[in-house]
């Protein structure tokens, strides 16, 4: 219970980042489990080949956008504090501020043009989450 409670303190905004713990690459040794990034392992083909089916849909991003877009307070915060919230939502908060702001501007322009993030741009918000968390993963693997 203590570990679960401690995770809450790691959140930077609302429930984000969603993934707090990612694979860790360990130094090679007798007890090492993962000594290369998962992406490198996939690219090299150094894994058990088993049949699997996977795919994405246009609305996979609903997993992330619905809790925000159905709460007017959260939607308003995303709109008002875009340059603070977007890096956390989309996983580039670790970059220098100039780079974060540049990426946030590009995303904003690409997905929302000059429009506010609100009920009228909900689909664009969903598309952004779908692209970031599903489509981007497929591009990196395939």
From TrEMBL:
Domain Carboxylesterase type B stretches:
2-134
Q: Give the coiled coil ranges.
A: none
Reply yes or no: does the keyword Glycosyltransferase apply.
no
Pfam families recorded for this chain? COesterase (PF00135)
| Record keywords | Glycoprotein
Which SUPFAM superfamilies does this entry report, sorted A to Z?
alpha/beta-Hydrolases
Name of the molecule in the record: Esterase P
